[in-house]
Amino acid sequence: xxxxxxxxxxxxxxxxxxxxxxxxxxxxxxxxxxxxxxxxxxxxxxxxxxxxxxxxxxxxxxxxxxxxxxxxxxxxxxxxxxxxxxxxxxxxxxxxxxxxxxxxxxxxxxxxxxxxxxxxxxxxxxxxxxxxxxxxxxxxxxxxxxxxxxxxxxxxxxxxxxxxxxxxxxxxxxxxxxxxxxxxxxxxxxxxxxxxxxxxxxxxxxxxxxxxxxxxxxxxxxxxxxxxxxxxxxxxxxxxxxxxxxxxxxxxxxxxxxxxxxxxxxxxxxxxxxxxxxxxxxxxxxxxxxxxxxxxxxxxxxxxxxxxxxxxxxxxxxxxxxxxxxxxxxxxxxxxxxxxx
Length: 341
Prior knowledge:
Elements: E1 7-8, H1 18-21, E2 35-41, H2 49-52, H3 55-76, E3 81-82, E4 84-90, H4 92-101, H5 109-119, E5 125-129, H6 144-153, E6 157-163, H7 168-176, E7 184-187, H8 193-198, E8 204-206, E9 228-230, H9 245-252, H10 258-263, H11 281-291, E10 338-340
Parallel strand pairs: 1-3, 2-4, 2-6, 4-5, 6-7, 7-8
Antiparallel strand pairs: 9-10
Helix pairs in contact: 3-5, 4-5, 9-11
């Protein structure tokens, strides 16, 4: 990291807004508006249960512990004094379901009390809902990736600590901003961090212990009773699904995790697909329709009742030329006559 280093503001130096912070003259190389940005995906980096279960008091303690932990880390690195902003982006409804289903909170409403406590500690430290506007007018309507790009190109932002899913959108931002990556540090256990490694970009890592869970809570996904459908010849048949085209178009760009939504559990802790957000029955059917576009490795012999891959070619008039589905998956009789539980 080039240039002078910076550190967390002491409690006596803290102020309530970036406007007031800008009065601090000559903190970093003569830049009175210099600041540090911490960007976190709250769906991936979930606070410890001991914080969330204590409602408003737990939120206050979580915000205090997070700011102090980051402050101590910056201080140990001998960083100079400058304002610190912490933005945690999370789906509040999904997180409340996750903590409730894990029996951390007795009611989903308790998570709202936790949020209220967290956001009451410091105006520059907040958990931001995906669906709502941010408190800073210039950043309204932005998501985590947008904020990362904004901070990378902002000359006043001297350091970025990023904890989120390092998916294709983040990788593209990093490639586009290659010239300013010396001010970026990524949380060590960020999901998909191996994607950044493949790009061979020189990005430093950071770690903060005792704040976030090592394993994410994920809400339960209600699924129909698993059944294998068969035709008169005993071949496995995938029941027809006819989702709306608008739903399919919407899903293609969202990259929801098939395992999480269609099986109820994602087996890959490094998975970079989306696990947050509620999908209604039409959207789940759309996701199942897209998942069937890839053939099952077990072909038509698959006996897994909750397998979401395709077991027969979805194109009735397919001539099998360059088709990714195997020969035994081109079934002409799609009439279901029996079920295996």
